[in-house]
Design goal:
Blueprint: H1 6-35, H2 39-67, H3 73-84, H4 88-105, H5 118-159, H6 164-191, H7 200-220
Length: about 220
């Protein structure tokens, strides 16, 4: 089993920052359209945001429910309440930061230890948690980020309405799509035995560059 490294932890923190920033950009862009009386675009942006949040919260809660089956029901009620307020993924990020910090900075275990040993148990815990997060982010990518990207490009090309917030939304969408797809591929490789280490940074840059050139090609059509 691959190890959760310091580099993985740094990318995890970066993913949290981009996730929160993406939410802020969504509401910022939507408010800009609303102030410009472009109500249909504002509602459409928020609709993608709402659909994505609803789906990810439902799946996140069901996964928590399966993981905690047969344990304290009081904890599950609190988790349900947090998911009801659309903040369930932040619980998962908290566990990921907790286990990730232990795995990346506080453990120096040998590679021959079994998965039941405490060091490898923590490694397995953080990889499982991060894999769940990345799967939820894939849902978000295809339910929210990608549709919003198409909407922004359509407005830019067909209506000639361009401003800073629009370019910011497009840039954040590109980053979100690239990072979420690569992170999920990394998580899959880490959860499978006998897989070589994945070069995260180079592949993220390559993925972002390819999407950038695709967008340029579409814009020039």
């Amino acid at each position: 089993m691959m190890k959760f490294t310091k580099q993985d932890f740094i990318f995890l923190v970066g993913g949290i920052i981009i996730y929160v920033f993406d939410i802020g950009v969504d509401f910022w862009v939507s408010s800009k359209y609303f102030c410009q009386r472009q109500y249909s675009w504002s509602i459409l942006i928020l609709s993608f945001r709402g659909l994505s949040s609803l789906v990810t919260q439902v799946f996140s809660y069901e996964w928590f429910k399966n993981d905690l089956e047969g344990t304290d029901t009081g904890k599950l009620k609190w988790i349900f309440l947090v998911h009801l307020f659309q903040c369930g993924i932040f619980i998962r990020y908290w566990f990921a930061l907790k286990y990730g910090c232990q795995a990346a900075f506080k453990q120096n275990s040998g590679g021959d230890a079994s998965e039941t040993d405490p060091p490898n148990f923590i490694q397995k815990q953080v990889i499982d948690v991060v894999t769940d997060i990345n799967m939820l982010r894939v849902f978000k990518t295809f339910l929210e980020t990608t549709p919003q990207l198409f909407v922004q490009i359509y407005i830019l090309m067909e209506h000639g309405k361009n401003n800073f917030c629009q370019y910011a939304a497009i840039f954040v969408s590109f980053c979100g799509i690239s990072i979420s797809t690569v992170d999920y591929q990394v998580s899959l490789r880490k959860s499978l035995p006998d897989k070589d280490e994945f070069h995260v940074l180079s592949n993220k840059l390559r993925n972002s560059k390819s999407k950038y050139f695709i967008a340029i090609s579409v814009a020039n059509c």
